[in-house]
Amino acid sequence: MPEIQIRPVVAADLPLLVAIDHSYTSDHVWQMDVQQETGAKPSDLQVHIRFRQVQLPRSVRVEYPRLPAELAEDWKKRAGVLVALYEETVIGYVSLMLNQAPATAWVTDLVVARRMRRQGVGSALVLAAQEWARHKACQRIVLEVQPKNYPAICLALKLGYDLCGYNDRYYTNHDIALFFARSVR
Q: In the predicted model, is pLDDT for residue 1 greater than 90?
């Protein structure tokens, strides 16, 4: 792993963060299946929701679910933004929110420059986010991920996160958000 420095964002970083290619490629997707079973009474209704990993016939490029032009404004609303640097060059960031749920830090964005992916930068950013959450007296941290973002899902599982929920039509592009969480205590 290259030697990465992680620090809080400064104003000069914002144009550099917007310029990072936020898209990603994936060869898997987490597909959601919903099945409803009705009974004789309304209280007999059962809803079964299942996510399963499906391999795509070919790798696809997926655009980021937030518009790059709106990112800088979104970051102003975040409780924290940490940037990763390699050789004094900004190569990634993680943005965090508080108060989405009690005693929980929420990772809304995790982005690494394409040339630095799969080298431990994402892991370093998530671990730094966990430390940030501990300092904010949080007990849990949640990562929000698109179901097509197989690399991020693999990262979450590798770091001990568990699927804890989803929200249909969560992003402006109407994509589902998957939520992965773990304790930071």
A: no
